[in-house]
Structure formats: C-alpha cells, structure tokens
Amino acid sequence: MTRSAVRAAAADRPDPGSYPEIHPPVRRRPDGAPARTLLFLHGGNVANWMWDPQVKGFPDYRVFTPHLPGFGARAAEDWAGLESAADDVAAFVADQVEEGGVHVVGLSLGGVVALRLMARHPELVDSALVSGVPARGIDAAARQLARLQVRLWGREWFWRFQAGAFGIPPDDRRLFADHGITIRAENARRMMAEVYAGGLPAGLGSYAGPVLAVAGSREPPVVRRSFPDIRAALPQADFRLAPAMHHQWSIEDPLLFNSMVRMWVERGRAHPRLLPA
Known about the structure:
Blueprint: H1 3-12, E1 22-23, E2 37-41, H2 52-57, E3 62-64, H3 82-96, E4 102-107, H4 109-120, E5 125-131, H5 140-151, H6 156-165, H7 170-180, H8 185-197, E6 211-216, H9 222-225, H10 227-233, E7 238-242, H11 249-252, H12 254-267, E8 275-276
Parallel strand pairs: 2-3, 2-4, 4-5, 5-6, 6-7
Antiparallel strand pairs: 1-3, 7-8
Helix pairs in contact: 3-4, 5-8, 6-7
C-alpha cells in the first residue's frame, strides 16, 4: 500500500470519540405509542461506539449512548470512581428526560455502573438489563494479569490481541485498537481496581423494578458465579446465559442481543434462546 493510500485509509476510519450520545427516533412505533428511551452503558475496554449495532436496531426508540468519564470523547478526564460515574450518568439522564425513567442496558463496566445507578437513582430506571458483571470480584491471578496488561496499555498489538480474545468481529478490531490506546493507563488501573474488587453497592435492594442479568457462556465464569450475590440483593431478577457468547457479545451477535433487549423492554420476558442460569 502506498503512503497516500495509508493516509486515505486512516482518514476513513471513524474517530473513537466522535460517536454521538443522543439518537432520536427515526421511525414511528407501529402501535403509535410515544418512543421509549433506552440507555446503553458501554464496557471498560471500549466506548459508546460499541452500541452502533443497537442504535441501528432500535430506530423506533430514543437511544442514549453516553461516554463514561475517561473513555471515548472524555478520554482526557479522570476516572473518579463507580459512584461518581453513576451520578454522572444520572445527571445526563435528568438533563434529557423531562419525566419518568429510562430502560438501562449495561455491559461489563457499563453493567457495574448500571447497578450503582439503580442503587443511587432508582427513580430514573424503569427496567435494567446487565451483562458481564463480575460482582464477586476477580481472583488474585486475574488481578496480576490485569496489572501486566496495564503495562502494555499503549501498544497497538496488545489491543489487536484483546480484540480476538473478546470475540470482536474482524471489521471492528481496528476501531477497538484505535480506542484502546486512547484510554489513559492510570484511568484503566483505577477502574479495574474497583471493578475487580467486586461487591454490590449499598442500597441496591431499594430498586424494585424488573432486572435481567446475563452472562455469556464463554466469558469468564466469575460472571455466572456472581448471580447468587445479585439475586440476594435483587430477588426479582431473572438470570440467563447467552449460549456460545463471549464477554462483548453485543458486537459478537447483535441480532440476538437486540432481540433480547426488545423482548425484555417490551414484554418483560427473557429471550427464548437464552438459557436458564
């Protein structure tokens, strides 16, 4: 490839921080009802661009995909903690929604933040769907591996390797790597220390709305082992496994993920392809 072709290819790649946070509905609902609002909270190795397949799959919804502090367009900001991130999301929702709440979908870090949002601002959450939440914490060996990963944080080959390990489709691996190297290592270290320590937020039991908790059958088993802890705090929750799915399965199988979200939000039921946990 010539130098001019390389420059042109780089120019065509989307900026990892440029993905919008607010997506108005572009199609009316068949029943004529007002558009519902979905709030998608992204994972810790990605940014809000990960939700593009979901935005495209919900043209009859108002969709929010906020940047969490320290990620995407906010990569220069400091990570101030899970509670602070939840309060940040709450302020975003309060600015955009005049009355009522939103249907929250959080994956990985986004799922952990979603639990804090439910505990601290339950009035903003009409329903919650969380996937890939390691509420029991990560063992010592995994934490040591995470510390090694932070040392490699700024190297592109590391992010390409991570993309394969997470099951990121080939078309999205370039964007995944481009974004990964924008995350400040100090932010990553602080965020992972909190998430990997595990635990559930105080006051989570005050949230009385519907909850669906999901684990990919091929993601680290700590996620499904965390289900009893979440059930103790949220006895109304439903727990399911996504067959053959890895951690980042909203990108891995967006059709199933979108169908799951729609069925949960509109019917309050788990998708039939999900397995009981």
